Amino acid sequence: MDKSSIKNSLQWLLANYFSSHKQRFFIKKGECLFKKGDANDRLYLVKSGQLNGYVDNPDGSHYARFEASKNMFVGIVSFFSRTYIARANVIAEEDSEVAYITKDEPLVKREGYDSLFDQFMPVVVTDLAFRQQREQQFFLEKEAATKKLLHSEKMASLGQMAAGLAHELNNAIAVLERNTHWMRENINAILQKRYPQEYPFFQYGNEKGRRLSSSEVRAHTKEIMTKFALAKQDAQKLAQTGIPADDLRRFVDIMDVDADIIHYYWDIGATFHDMMIAARHAAHVVRSVKALGAQKHSRQLNLDVNQSLQESLALLGTKVESVTIKQKLAELPPIVANIGELVQIWTNLLKNAIEAMQQAHTPNAQLKIRSSFADGAVNVYIEDNGPGIPKDLQEIIFQPNVTTKAQGLSFGLGLGLSIIEKIVDSYSGTISVKSKPGKTVFKVKLPVGDGYG
């Protein structure tokens, strides 16, 4: 039956069954028409206002099962099932006028309809379908609220666990970092003083670390073999150091004696370099995990977001050398923020983008960093042209233990983006992502103004 037929049926029913002023009354906002389980042999029609049907939950709360506004029915199921027992608590949401018929209502003859049920069936079915859709909507809203609550509770528990873990590890990591730095500086001084000829190799490894990939080592090996007429084994050891061939010319006499010397001292320096990087990264991870359970850090006025982006790029060091960086930074108003928190956000996002492009061997890898100010908020966009994030992960990517990396984070925690989301949320900001193959954009929105310190 089409909409016009249903409308005609409703108009006929209103004129023939609900026009009597004797079977009509007013109910004030907050009053109860009937309660679940009450006897009810009436079918009600809302003439004006709104009535809602509520069902109690086991915990004492209640939820709206249906809403009935003008020209909608109440008591349909109990009336036409002939149980005459109310199935919900019906309460007036506003001052309302209600008309009704009883189970003994005389049948008004209408051609083609032999019973009261036949006459009401088109509008009743439409009404019930509407209720079902509305109840489904209520359920989805309740489910979404429940999921949000569970997520909040999970993050709170995770924060407590993280704070305890960080406390236990913090002292140990600090000892490793401090002692690694001490050993590095002292070995550097000893070699510089007692082994000046070999010291440059240590210094190069100490400053640069192991920065070449296996394919780059193979290419460098061929170059050294050609330029210095060395055996492949010696050339390969020298190639691993990453020292450019032109710089190696200064040490050609030493190489002819024993190429192992260069590799040996370079390897000591590279090992110290890697130890310091690992110690710093471990300390950074501990601080990041600790942030899960921490309250707002001290924040200062007049912080420049663009400057925090530059500090993040500097912190990443040689990592950014593998990609082309393009920046378009607008003039921004200062915000109330903690520089460490902002640097942590940008460093994580930039590092993730770079590593995703490296793992996918993205040709002409690019990072675009943009900032803008609009609608009272600073917006930062970090875009890469890497492989993209799978669609099924985009909705859950900010949850703990979710990663797009083959091996997860360096320490296998999978907490990076969830920590970032927590920091951004503490500024009353938002973080979002849009991704497809060849383009992934993270957007961070931070409100400007007082109240975030």
Characterize the structure shown.
By secondary structure, the protein is α+β, with helices and mostly antiparallel strands. The protein folds into three domains: 3-106, Jelly Rolls; 164-291, no CATH class; 298-447, Heat Shock Protein 90. It contains 13 helices and 15 strands. It has helices at residues 3-17, 76-80, 116-194, 199-208, 214-228, 232-241, 245-248, 252-257, 259-293, 305-316, 339-359, 391-394, 416-426, and strands at residues 24-27, 32-34, 42-48, 51-56, 62-68, 73-74, 89-92, 96-102, 300-303, 324-329, 335-337, 366-374, 377-384, 430-436, 439-447. It has a five-stranded mixed β-sheet. The chain has a four-stranded antiparallel β-sheet with strand order 1-8-3-6, with no helix packed on it. The chain has a four-stranded antiparallel β-sheet with strand order 2-7-4-5. A hairpin with a 2-residue loop joins strand 12 and strand 13 (377-384). Helix 4 packs parallel to helix 9 (259-293) and helix 11 (339-359) packs antiparallel against helix 13 (416-426).
